[in-house]
Write a structure and sequence with these properties.
With 168 residues, this protein is of the alpha+beta class. The protein contains 4 helices and 8 strands. The chain is globular and about 55 Å long. The N and C termini lie far apart (81 Å). The relative contact order is 0.23.
Length: 168
Amino acid sequence: STYWETHISGGKASGLIKILEEPDMDYKNQVVDLEIKVRHGKCIRIVRMNLSDSLYELHLAIQEAFEFDNDHLFAFYAGYGMLKETFTIPEASISGDEYSVYETLLGDLQLRAGDKFSYLFDFGDEWWFDIKAVAIKEGSVHGPEHIKAVHDAPEQYPVYEDEYEDDM
């Protein structure tokens, strides 16, 4: 214990321990404005949420903002390359290394203005959304606030002419 006290806890390595420790984050009084864009389209929605809201709550906000039926699996992807992390529900877990959307808060992503991450809804039709943190500021909202809408939302299940003719 003497070595620990002298060299580690209060000594030479104390700075390293502070770097490696997980900081206690309090997101209760911060909001983030998220620009959510359909990857292959022009439709954009800006939604304001608390940093203390979960990724699951963001999923629901996207579903509402784009007028989609909440009837498929989904995942969020944050980071780059080998550092990319997957956040999903247990039913969509493939490797077991994914993080829970129920337990991960927006603040846990340590977003800064300009940071981006992705949302994939419906693994069959592959609705990809690019999400960008536009602004982070003090405050709170009682639920996701829809700040801005650009262009009409795409149809979740568009009817293509060929399919219609085949059904006839």
